[in-house]
Specification:
The complex is a heterotrimer of chains A (252), B (263) and C (324). Chain A is an all-alpha fold and 252 residues long. Chain A contains twelve helices and no strands. In chain A, α3 packs across α9, α7 crosses α9 and α8 runs antiparallel to α9. Chain B folds into two domains: 32 residues; 223 residues, MetI-like (MetI-like fold), CATH 1.10.3720. In chain B, α2 packs across α13 and α3 packs antiparallel against α10.
Chain lengths: 252, 263, 324
């Protein structure tokens, strides 16, 4: 026990404590002043907006992909299944570079979205792709087909089966995946930094924090960092609550 | 059937647009002028040094986080203690929080004005903008992976096998080495693979604390960024391809060792 | 080795699992600990093995205080309901485990494992992994594993609970024979009264953490010490104010002292016996079990009114009194 808490304190807790302390040192007034500067507000708005779009996109497309991977049969399915984890394995900076190669100035497809907000969404979709798929997939595998067959035999159409049987069972998984994707998208820097650059129009919160640190203004950076940290904590709690809610029926 | 094909097309199309086409492009761009320029970049002194830094940080972070992850998982699953919820939350934190925020937190702790800064400076120990900070950042971002993989496996196994071993005369140590560890070994291996991938690819936190001094504290990932900023796109592709190749290897290992649904 | 359990109490939070239990298990006996789920029987077994610590009381093994001794030094063999097979080891390595960690010579281990596998009839399965065995085979492997280091006591926690009916019956028989061969003091926990009565030479009945009665199977059946034991060991029906066994009910066509007026609701002939479903004046149902010849002499038909009494002459009068 002692080993665990010492390690965690030195590696994780102390740095976080230093960050929280730093952001409070100059008082709440200074904190609000930093946080309400147009640059900071713009960066946070862009970050939360893009993250939300990305999380929802992956909520829909990730669920479809998970369904295809579990219920559909085609050649190369296991290969596709393996490829899903690529964003976990690939360094984010490399992910950014791959997108730049495909959708940048020299795009072979003639699509150049570099340094636009579209590029940000694209990059975030890339890095958050596995989350929804990997939370929905196991639920779908476990899901008893007999339940759907029973619903069919009771006269439910395909849409009704999906809406009343499949979706309610998948929803906790989808939501967990969406929340995890949201958390990841809010903090992402590596994949974004190359494709979005740091024009005021495309500066996400983490890039903003990074640039402010480079300017030697660590205290200012800590204000925005605290917002990101708080959001991360809130989302973690949400995932925990979802997990609790899902297992509640099983424990009773 | 058309519905099924439609969904399949959507899913595969999405993967193609987002994942596969861009990845393929990097390989194409890297090798379009042959192997020779790639080799020149990779054998460059600065490139080699950057990879060395990345490997050192990974070599330190992976074993530490493996031991910590296994101990942590055992504590969370097998023991009752106060503050378990807190421990759980702090383990997951590195997954959810921005690497830049992690970098900043370390910067504030070890920097000149930070809590430990003055003491470190007085004793002539350089942490920030040096290897120690890079290692600390790498450890921080890769804390959760082993524990997260091992916890569900331990939960599912219960501890009946350990109890059986105890009644057969096995000591605590023997129970851990002969029963517990073998039964979680695939989860540990899977966690180690994920940890390694994360360590090799870390960018945001390292970018903040390393200072990115060329030939000194530059890592493979920050090197790619710098090459792009200096319009050396071809060089960046060459470095990226090495990391991408490692990622593909990681992917293969992940597929082979993925915890099976049922044993 | 004899086991003595002295005034053992165990709580889990607010739940009282064992309430001041004292029980003696003689050397070489085959004892069943019988009770419904939640009666504390498994907890008792785990305390004897050292897998749980009692809140109060003590455990004596061969007359020696052993309450604080860790399970690894108690020299007991424990068989778990869900086998607790070491999944990553072959059957051979599972069985050899206790000997391997005691660093016995290789040849000795090999011989002992062969001997045990033969005893549990798993000779051809030594190199298989537990996942490729059936439930019954896994349980036999677990038994062999528990016996390997020649424990002084064999403890079995619902050993047949997870098996299907046919395999259960086979293993019961087999355990009985095994005990005759090996003759190690054996305690097994079960919720199945038939299983307990069939295998054990002594049965201890538990309810709500208390020991209700201990004795030979026939003793429990014929002279139950409490209503609970009467109901739990064998069938029991309520006739008037008394609890009786269905086969103790005597039906007559005329009223007599203490007889209860009942209506015949249903008749089922079951080979040598017949079951007659009755309802009394209050609408309560009970069933009587008659010998076939008795039943035919009475010539009963559905809807008839008859009078029922209990022939409990063989039962201890004192026990009857406590029941009423």
């Amino acid at each position: 026990m002692g080993v665990i808490s010492t390690f965690l304190t030195v590696i994780v807790v102390l740095p976080i404590a230093a960050l929280v302390w730093e952001s409070k040192r100059d008082g709440t007034h200074a904190f609000w002043q930093t946080i309400s500067s147009p640059e900071a507000v713009g960066a946070l708005k862009l970050t939360f907006g893009a993250a939300l779009i990305v999380a929802l996109t992956n909520g829909v497309l990730g669920t479809i992909t998970a369904w295809v991977l579990v219920r559909d049969e085609f050649r190369g399915r296991s290969l596709v299944n393996a490829v899903i984890d690529l964003p976990f394995a690939l360094p984010t900076i490399v992910a950014g570079l791959t997108l730049l190669a495909m959708y940048g100035p020299n795009s072979p497809a003639g699509i150049d979205v570099a340094f636009t907000r579209t590029a940000i969404v694209l990059a975030l979709c890339f890095v958050t792709l596995p989350f929804v798929i990997r939370t929905v997939q196991p639920v779908l595998i476990e899901l008893d087909m007999e339940m759907e067959e029973a619903a069919c035999s009771l006269g439910a159409g395909r849409l009704a089966v999906f809406r009343r049987i499949v979706l309610p069972n998948l929803l906790p998984g989808i939501l967990s995946g969406v929340v995890l994707a949201l958390a990841r998208a809010l903090g992402e820097i590596g994949s974004v930094v190359l494709v979005a650059g740091s024009t005021t129009h495309t500066e996400v919160a983490s890039v903003f924090v990074y640039n402010v640190i480079q300017d030697g203004l660590a205290a200012e950076a800590s204000a925005v960092a605290i917002v990101l940290l708080a959001a991360a904590f809130a989302l973690l709690l949400t995932v925990g609550a979802l997990r609790f809610f899902v297992t509640r029926h099983e424990r009773a | 059937m058309p519905r099924r094909l439609g969904l399949r097309a959507i899913a595969l199309g999405y993967l193609l647009v987002i994942l596969l086409a861009p990845l393929g492009m990097v390989f194409y761009r890297t090798f379009q002028h042959g192997l020779e320029p790639v080799w020149r970049v990779l054998s460059d002194h600065y490139t080699v040094h950057a990879f060395e830094i990345t490997l050192i940080a990974t070599a330190l972070a992976v074993p530490l986080n493996t031991v910590f992850g296994v101990l942590c998982a055992l504590a969370i699953v097998r023991r009752r203690f106060r503050g378990k919820g807190l421990l759980n939350a702090f383990i997951d934190l590195p997954l959810a929080v921005s690497p830049v925020v992690i970098g900043l937190a370390l910067y504030l702790l070890y920097g000149r004005t930070g809590w430990f800064g003055p003491w470190l400076q007085a004793h002539g120990i350089q942490v920030l903008f040096a290897l120690p900070a890079i290692v600390l950042a790498t450890i921080f971002v890769s804390v959760p992976f082993v524990a997260r993989e091992v916890i569900p496996v331990l939960r599912e196994q219960g501890n009946e096998q350990e109890q059986a071993a105890a009644t057969l005369g096995a000591s605590r140590w023997q129970r851990f080495w002969r029963i517990t560890l073998p039964s979680i070994r695939w989860a540990v291996i899977y966690g180690v693979i994920l940890t390694t991938a994360r360590c090799l690819g870390e960018y945001g936190a390292v970018a903040v604390v390393s200072g990115r001094i060329e030939g000194k504290t530059e890592t493979a990932t920050t090197l790619i960024d710098d090459m792009i900023q200096n319009f050396q796109n071809g060089d960046a592709y060459a470095v990226a391809v090495v990391l991408a190749a490692i990622a593909v290897l990681v992917l293969v290992l992940m597929t082979v060792t993925r915890p099976k649904e049922a044993l | 080795m004899s086991i003595e359990i002295r005034n053992v109490t165990k709580r889990f939070g607010s739940f009282l699992a064992l309430d001041d239990v004292s029980l003696q298990i003689p050397d070489g006996s085959l004892t069943a600990v019988l009770g419904p789920s939640g009666s504390g029987k498994s907890t008792l077994l785990r305390i004897v093995a050292g897998l749980e610590q009692p809140d109060a009381g003590e455990i004596l093994l061969s007359g020696e205080e052993a309450t604080a001794v860790s399970p690894q030094r108690r020299d007991v063999g424990f068989v778990f309901q869900h086998y607790a097979a070491f999944k990553h080891m072959t059957v051979r390595d599972n069985v050899a485990f206790a000997l391997t960690i005691r660093k016995r010579p290789k040849q000795e281990i090999r011989d002992r494992v062969e001997e045990l596998l033969e005893l549990v009839q798993l000779q051809g399965f030594a190199d298989r992994y537990p996942s490729r065995l059936s439930g019954g085979q896994r349980q036999r492997m677990a038994l062999a594993r528990a016996l390997a280091a020649k424990p002084r006591v064999l403890l079995l926690d619902e050993p047949f609970g997870a098996l299907d009916a046919r395999v259960r019956a086979e293993l019961r028989d087999w355990l009985r024979r095994l005990h005759e061969e090996v003759h190690v003091t054996t305690v097994f926990v079960t919720h199945d009264q038939e299983e307990a009565m069939e295998i054990a030479d002594r049965v201890a009945v538990f309810d709500h953490g208390r020991l209700e009665q201990v004795g030979a199977p026939a003793e429990l059946y014929d002279t139950p010490a409490s209503e609970f034991v009467l109901r739990f060991v064998g069938d029991a029906v309520r006739l008037g104010s008394a609890l009786v066994r269905p086969h103790e009910i005597v039906l007559r066509r005329w009223p007599s002292d203490g007889a209860v007026e009942v209506e015949i609701e249903r008749i089922a002939v079951l080979g040598a016996d017949a079951r007659v479903e009755l309802s009394d004046g209050d609408g309560d149902r009970l069933s009587a079990r008659l010998r076939r010849d008795e039943f035919e002499d009475l010539d009963l038909t559905r809807g008839e009114i008859v009078w029922a009494t209990a022939s409990a002459s063989h039962r201890d009068a004192k026990a009857q009194q406590t029941l009423r």
